[in-house]
Specification:
Elements: H1 3-16, H2 24-37, H3 53-56, H4 72-78, E1 86-91, E2 94-95, E3 108-111, H5 112-117, H6 122-128, H7 138-146, E4 151-155, E5 165-171, E6 178-188, E7 193-202, E8 208-218, E9 223-231, E10 236-246, E11 251-260, E12 263-272, E13 278-287, E14 292-301, E15 307-316, E16 321-330, E17 338-347, E18 353-362, E19 368-376, H8 380-387, H9 393-406, H10 415-432
Parallel strand pairs: 1-5, 4-6, 5-7, 6-8, 7-9, 8-10, 9-11, 10-12, 11-13, 12-14, 13-15, 14-16, 15-17, 16-18, 17-19
Antiparallel strand pairs: 1-2, 3-4
Helix pairs in contact: 1-2, 2-7, 8-9, 9-10
Domain SUF system FeS cluster assembly SufBD N-terminal: 4-167
Protein name: Fe-S cluster assembly protein SufD
Domain SUF system FeS cluster assembly SufBD core: 175-404
């Protein structure tokens, strides 16, 4: 049975397994919307270059087994060497405090499922939940219909969360292909600050499909950074939608570092709701074999005197396929907007492809907006220059590719994270050079 049929058939059983009945009607409506639209196909403009049939034609288990045997050694391999971090570990959808290190003070942290069951948070969910997530997308509706796993974090006014928080989503001990609908809700109130690192890991040979939706609310003079490390197995699929709404004088960053996973689709929407907002989006993609990574970004400049910066780098080998579609919308009242968008790509094999489409839609007349993209191979003159100085071809290629990707890491201010990304770059470039 294909995934579409399973979503309809399993929903009643799913609702019976939950206790948070106040969302039942909303879930049913969301499923009805999904049923009408179905999964996007290559006939849909937004999925023109991304074929989801490999994902949607498989069978999945909607009720993952909770039992696991994750060891400390396995977790240690996933850590960034972060002795002074907090980390939150979800295994098969369940929060495991015994594997986590949670010292968050003066903030509200709950697993998403627990927050849904907590009457004290009903007003918060009424105010924030599903208010900025797009209502007309198949995957966001499917997520609303089935969401259960993930976390809720509210950082009160002027509270600084000093330690970065690394959130792990692990899947293990699943005999069947497994479907997770992960939901995160982050609220950063006026003058507050928090940094999140998110990673997903499948330990089984069976396939895992994660449909994730994250809503981020950053208030006046607040700062929220969200770093995604996507380095999963070849038996993992990820469709991620992240929506960030910013108020005046706020700063929000989403960095996406993609190295592993069979098919990954990242959707990122920034919504400006005040003046003097800064939004940063950076991405590094290094893939090979028959992997596919698709980045779709959109920045909605609705107010004057705001800035957005997008810088995505891609390195593709073998028969891998990259997609980048970046959009910047500038409202007619959003004067003095400064928007930068750049996508640069290197193809290392004849079979590798990239479809890139940066877009600007500007309705204001006093703005500074630029966009561009490049697709090419390594610079032969630079390669010759390095080799003439005694550097081997393999090392010279790796050095040039590292320099090419490096500027997309410049705004990482978590040193262990920066070191980890540099290590992953070195590892992946070493693999890339084996031809």
């Amino acid at each position: 049975m294909a995934l579409y049929d399973q979503t309809i058939e399993n929903h009643s059983e799913f609702l019976e397994s939950l206790r948070h009945r106040f969302l039942d009607d909303d879930r049913k409506i969301a499923l009805q919307k999904f049923a009408i639209k179905g999964f996007p196909t290559k006939k849909d403009e937004e999925y023109k270059y991304t074929n989801l049939k490999e994902i949607t034609e498989k069978d999945y288990n909607f009720f993952p087994k909770e039992s696991h045997n994750i060891t400390k050694e396995q977790l240690d391999e996933l850590h960034l060497g972060e002795e002074n971090f907090d980390w939150i570990v979800f295994v098969n959808g369940q929060l495991h405090k015994e594997l986590s290190n949670i010292s968050i003070e003066n903030a509200e942290f709950l697993s998403f499922n627990y927050a849904l069951n907590d009457e004290n948070h009903k007003d918060v969910f009424d105010k924030y939940f599903n208010t900025i997530a797009a209502k007309d997308l198949a995957f966001t509706n499917l997520n609303q219909a089935y969401c259960k796993y993930g976390f809720f974090l509210k950082v009160p006014k002027n509270v600084i969360i000093e330690k970065p928080i690394h959130v792990f989503y692990l899947s293990q001990n699943q005999e069947e292909n497994t479907f997770y609908n992960t939901r995160n809700l982050l609220i950063v109130e006026e003058g507050a600050k928090v940094e999140i690192i998110e990673s997903h890991h499948n330990f089984d040979e069976s396939f895992v499909f994660t449909n994730s939706v994250t809503e981020i609310f950053t208030y006046q003079n607040a700062k929220a950074d969200w770093h995604k490390i996507q380095n999963d197995s070849d038996t993992s699929y990820l469709v991620d939608h992240t929506f960030a709404k910013q108020e005046r004088d706020s700063l929000t960053t989403v960095n996406t570092f993609t190295f592993g996973g069979k098919i990954i689709r990242n959707n990122l929407d920034f919504i400006h709701n005040g003046e003097n907002i800064n939004s940063f989006m950076n991405g590094i993609t290094i893939i090979g074999k028959d992997q596919l990574v698709d980045h779709h970004t959109a920045v909605h400049h609705n107010t004057p005197n705001c800035q957005s910066y997008q810088n995505y780098k891609g390195i593709f080998k073998d028969k891998s396929h990259g997609v980048f579609n970046g959009k910047v919308f500038v409202n007619k009242i959003a004067q003095k907007t400064n928007a930068y968008q750049q996508n640069n790509n290197v193809l290392l094999s004849e079979g590798a492809t990239i479809d890139t489409k940066p877009q600007l839609e500007i309705f204001a007349d006093d703005v500074k907006c630029s966009h561009g993209c490049t697709v090419g191979q390594l610079n032969k003159d630079a390669l010759f220059y390095l080799r003439a100085r005694g550097i081997s071809k393999k090392e010279a290629q790796a050095l040039l590719l590292y320099a090419f990707a490096n500027d997309a890491m410049q705004n990482i201010d978590i040193e262990p994270l920066k070191v980890k990304i540099e290590q992953l770059l070195a590892e992946k470039l070493e693999v890339t050079m084996e031809f």
